[in-house]
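This part of the workshop introduces the protein records we will be handling. Backbone structure tokens are a discrete shorthand for how the chain folds in space. Once this layout is familiar, the rest of the handout is easier to follow. The record below serves as our worked example for the rest of this section.
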Amino acid sequence: MERSNPDYHRIYSDIINKKHPEKKEECKALLSKKELSVLDIIELNTKIFGLPDRSTETFNQKHRSYDTSAILKILAHQKTNKLNNTELAQHFKLSRNTVTKWKKLFPEKSRQQK
């Protein structure tokens, strides 16, 4: 059985239309994309609901998951901006151990091919 992904375009469009119509223009560029990445969804959520308080952010952080393409984008961001693991972890609100684990899972050679 194939795992289906939620239709984030529809979910966020409904939220914007019903609860936050004033943010429609701000989110238009992201919602016009054919497919939303994990990073796009996080950005949309921040634009619509603003920055969460500390307890909400802690709870949400425990339940985040990243697909391979998102991990590769994050690691590419590190390389293009010449960030070390600590700086990258702070920027994306990750653990340094997570960044290290990803770098071991996706060695430099395989990251360049994708």
